[in-house]
């Protein structure tokens, strides 16, 4: 997951302390001009992104919506990791078939043999060297939209429309601070006061989103944007994980009319729900966070079939892809047993 979630020695919550995310990343970028030494080249890079992780799930969605599957390959670590690294335990022989490594840590150490921080996803790995090019999760999705534009599929949506740029940035900032990261500040709080402060900020933001989405189909403008992707990956984990495991329990998602219908609308849109693996999501949080869930027992619920019920959001106007088209069938489908989608 993003920095700060790769716990030290299996610990994620520090008694008596508020949770603070480590926001130091490998900030070199893969760009059109190759300014940082990593020029955009079809086939050169591998996106390593665990389905379990909300920050990585963003990158998987953006890659799929933009149709970058033929130019940027995807490596999928399993849902659990130890204190050292995410591992490729789902692949034959426990090795990534392109990078030839068992642990993502190996690619980080190729970049810096003394790399001192958490081994996080998403990461883009340069296959010519086997080293991580970047793990800056927020910048990765922006660059997939802007720097890889020449390789987008015909009909790819504009996830960063210039006319709405300032509003997208404003919405993204609050959603990240109080919602995407806010659930972690609740879940990993080691102090009652810190937990309650994070909880109150989280729910103030959720109420703001509920009101905003009551009268508009998407967060910004009349089409899907980066802002919707960033919120969706938190909402889809709400009832399976955050409501109970992270103590964000004022309301379930299913009890928030606008947000629940909005989340279902996105889930049923090609490129969103077909990237979500509910079994991996639950296994990651409940099995890895043993200081929060000591038994490692994974909840059997909730019922996933409700994700496919009619959402009725069409009445608010807007079209998901604007003048574009939906992506085709997924190249890397989710295990049918792990999704309610047919």
Strand percentage: under 5%
Q: Secondary-structure element order, as H and E?
A: EHEHEEHHHHHHHH
Q: What profile does the largest beta sheet have? A: 4 strands, mixed
Q: Roughly how many Å is the radius of gyration? A: 19 Å
**Low-pLDDT segments:** none
CATH class of the domain at 166-338: Mainly Alpha
Number of strands: 4
So what's the overall shape? globular
Q: Please, could you describe this protein's structure?
A:
The chain is mainly α. The chain has a domain of about 170 residues: Glutathione S-transferase Yfyf (Class Pi), Chain A, domain 2 (Up-down Bundle), CATH 1.20.1050.10. It is built from ten helices and four strands. Strands 2-1-3-4 form a four-stranded mixed sheet. Strand 3 and strand 4 form a beta hairpin. The longest helix is centred in the middle third of the chain and has 21 residues. It is globular and about 50 Å long. It starts with about 45 loop residues before the first strand and ends in a 54-residue tail after the last helix. InterPro entries: Glutathione-S-Trfase_C-like, Glutathione-S-Trfase_C_sf, Glutathione_S-Trfase, Glutathione_S-Trfase_N, GST_Omega-like_C, GST_Omega/GSH, Thioredoxin-like_sf. Keywords: Transferase. Pfam families: GST_C_2 (PF13410), GST_N_2 (PF13409). This is Putative glutathione S-transferase. It comes from Actinokineospora cianjurensis.
């Amino acid at each position: 997951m993003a920095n700060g979630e790769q716990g030290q020695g299996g610990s994620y919550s520090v008694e008596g302390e508020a949770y603070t995310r480590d926001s130091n990343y490998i900030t070199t970028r893969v760009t059109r001009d190759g300014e940082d030494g990593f020029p955009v080249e079809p086939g050169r890079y591998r996106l390593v992104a665990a389905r379990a992780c909300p920050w990585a799930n963003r990158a998987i969605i953006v890659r799929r919506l933009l149709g970058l599957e033929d130019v940027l390959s995807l490596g999928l670590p399993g849902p659990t990791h130890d204190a050292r690294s995410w591992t490729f335990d789902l692949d034959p022989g426990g090795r990534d078939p392109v990078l030839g490594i068992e642990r993502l840590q190996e690619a980080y150490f190729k970049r810096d043999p003394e790399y001192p921080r958490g081994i996080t996803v998403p990461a883009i790995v340069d296959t010519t060297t086997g080293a991580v090019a970047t793990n800056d999760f927020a910048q990765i999705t922006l660059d997939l939209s802007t720097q890889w534009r020449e390789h987008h599929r015909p009909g790819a949506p504009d996830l960063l429309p210039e006319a709405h740029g300032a509003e997208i940035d404003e919405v993204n900032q609050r959603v990240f601070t109080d919602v995407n990261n806010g659930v972690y500040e609740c879940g990993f709080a080691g102090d009652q006061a810190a937990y309650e402060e994070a909880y109150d900020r989280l729910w103030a933001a959720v109420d703001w989103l509920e009101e905003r989405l009551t009268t508009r189909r998407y967060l910004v403008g009349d089409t899907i944007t980066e802002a919707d992707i960033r919120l969706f990956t938190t909402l889809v984990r709400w009832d399976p994980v955050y409501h109970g495991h992270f103590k964000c329990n004022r309301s379930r998602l299913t009890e928030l009319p606008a947000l629940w219908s909005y989340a279902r609308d996105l889930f049923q849109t090609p490129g969103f729900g077909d990237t979500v693996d509910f079994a991996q999501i639950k296994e990651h949080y409940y099995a890895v966070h043993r200081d929060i869930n000591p038994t490692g027992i994974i909840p059997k619920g909730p019922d996933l079939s409700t994700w496919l019920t009619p959402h009725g959001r069409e009445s608010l106007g807007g079209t998901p892809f604007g003048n574009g088209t939906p992506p085709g069938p997924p190249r890397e489908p989710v295990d049918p047993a792990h999704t309610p989608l047919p």
